[in-house]
Design goal:
nine-stranded mixed beta sheet, alpha/beta, six-stranded mixed beta sheet, 26 strands, Alkaline Phosphatase, subunit A, 517 residues, single chain, 14 helices
């Protein structure tokens, strides 16, 4: 009799959950650039307490590239970059602008791109939920929040997107300004923490969007820190540690708002970062260096570039190259030169040129992807006493040594944070199973009782669910590629893990040895 009652209750619970009714709301807080080794009691007491009450994912990773827009889209869709179409923070998309690369979070570029084809090739988590009649809310200090939910048509103030002080629908900004004032200006990241902007965005969510009787089914809060300060002063600096405390304070405001409304006990919270972080060892003007070798390369043009021209984009810990007309001879000659440099780390190519990995090997194989992707070289050296390890060569000429950067295949860029707590998650659990940002969306869908789309790249993190004792099997592998060029052997590697058919990228690097060694 008792067994029948228990089975009946379980069946009723699963039936209700499968319909998306009465599911506990999900709150996703993104702390941009948060390294997992930064989550310490002295700087982040709220997050440490949350981790102890829930699950800490100790083997969590971004998708590659380890940059904001790429991983913002992966978090929002559960898909790898090749599937979403967002393979870099800045891309050359001639259907949008044939003369200059465009920022993927730019409102004009996204609006234009959606009319040319589809700016993001798949539906995002908020779009999926709203199609099921559920309310959503996205609030971000940074423009990446736009990529979560950029639908301008048929939007209401009940399911807004707030990004960098702007909003969809536009009328919602009037309400924000009436209650909070305009978003404050951003300070100089070399000297100040972005405290006021992150506080404004947090209050846009907690004081304005959450002012109603019920929470949206999904709420997303994207904070600019500690990324903002780490870029300015490097990870582990006094200013970057102040930025950690600032993000932790905003998390505290989120938790306090849930507690005050009596909603915290029935809310599932996921705190995640988009990527890790490294310290700049040196900066190399890659495009100037490549140009000096006779390559027709540029980052902008007066007239539409001709076949054989290379459009180059430098993105901190990586650089991308688009060969107009897909000329294979030009592409291979570029690769061979890069293999002779001291700054190239891992090289990836559309057609898997010998001595490189293919774009498919790292999940970048989309129709708009570059022809060559170069992750910069890195080391595990410590910048200075008391600072966290991880140095890389940087391509962005607006940043200097001792400042912070990401985008490479460094183990420090490819290790980021995920902590989950709430009624659905195991308490006091440390998961060693590899996970990635692409797993967040399918996990949120499962929590909300919405069917996970077939063919999604991410997986549901069931090992972290309350009552689970599962430990999924893990397969580890190291990919290698080499090629003899200029009398030396170019060698590169990529460490990966596989869980349930999903691939997780851990680190990759390269070097050159005398031929035959």
């Amino acid at each position: 009799m008792r067994k029948s009652i228990a089975l009946g209750a379980a069946y009723l619970f699963l039936t209700v959950l499968s319909r998306g009714a009465a599911a506990d709301p999900v709150v996703i807080v993104v702390m941009d650039g948060l390294r997992p080794d930064s989550v310490v009691e002295a700087d982040m007491p709220n997050l440490v307490t949350l981790a102890k009450a829930g699950t800490f994912f100790a083997n969590h990773h971004p998708v590659y590239a380890s940059s904001t827009e790429v991983n913002g889209t992966a978090l929002a869709t559960g898909m790898r970059p090749g599937r979403t179409g967002v393979t870099g923070n800045v891309e050359y998309r001639p259907d949008v602008d044939p003369l200059f690369p465009v920022a993927m979070e730019d409102e004009w570029a996204a609006w234009t791109g959606d009319r040319a084809s589809r700016w993001i090739s798949v539906q995002t988590l908020p779009q999926i939920l709203r199609a099921q009649g559920l309310r959503t809310a996205v609030a971000g200090t940074k423009g990446v929040a736009l990529l979560w939910d950029r639908d301008w048509a048929n939007r209401t103030v009940e399911s807004p997107t707030v990004y960098g002080g702007a909003s969809i629908p536009g009328a919602f900004k009037d309400r924000l300004v009436a209650e909070l004032g305009p978003i404050p200006p951003a300070p100089d990241r070399r000297f100040f923490v972005n405290t006021r902007q992150d506080r404004w965005t947090t209050e846009a969510l907690t004081k304005v969007i959450w002012s109603g009787a019920d929470l949206p089914a999904l709420s997303v809060l994207w904070l600019s820190e500690p990324d903002y300060s780490q870029h300015g002063t490097g990870p582990g600096s006094p200013q970057s540690r102040a930025a950690l405390r600032n993000s932790d304070t905003n998390l505290g405001l989120v938790l306090a708002a849930l507690e005050a409304s009596g909603r915290r006990a029935r809310t599932n919270i996921m705190v995640v970062s988009d990527h890790g972080f490294s310290t700049i060892a040196q900066t190399v003007d890659v495009l100037t260096d490549v140009s000096r070798q006779g390559f027709p390369v540029g980052s902008g043009f007066r007239d539409k570039p001709q076949n054989g021209t290379i459009v180059g984009v430098t993105l901190g810990g990586l650089a991308t190259f688009y060969v107009v007309g897909k000329d294979p001879a030009v592409t291979e000659r570029l690769v061979r030169y890069l293999q002779t440099t001291a700054y190239a780390g891992v090289l990836m190519t559309r057609d898997k040129i010998a001595g490189t990995f293919s774009l498919a090997d790292v999940g970048l194989d989309g129709p708009n992807a570059p022809d060559v992707v170069m992750a910069m070289r890195w080391t595990s050296d410590i910048p200075a006493e008391g600072l966290p390890p991880g140095l890389l060569v940087n391509t962005s000429t607006s940043y200097n040594p001792r400042q912070g950067m990401h985008g490479s295949l460094s183990r420090y860029d490819m290790s980021n944070t995920l902590i989950a707590a709430g009624p659905a998650f195991r308490a006091g659990f440390r998961s060693e199973t590899p996970s990635a940002n692409s797993d967040v969306a399918p996990t949120a869908l499962r929590l909300l009782g919405i069917p996970v789309p077939a063919g999604i790249d991410g997986r549901v993190l069931e090992e972290a669910f309350a009552g689970s004792t599962a430990t999924p099997p893990v397969e580890n592998e190291t990919l290698d590629a080499s090629f003899v060029v200029a009398g030396r052997t170019w060698q590169q590697y990529l460490k990966i893990s596989r869980v349930a058919g999903r691939t997780y990228y851990l680190e990759g690097n390269a070097g050159a040895a005398p031929a035959g060694k």
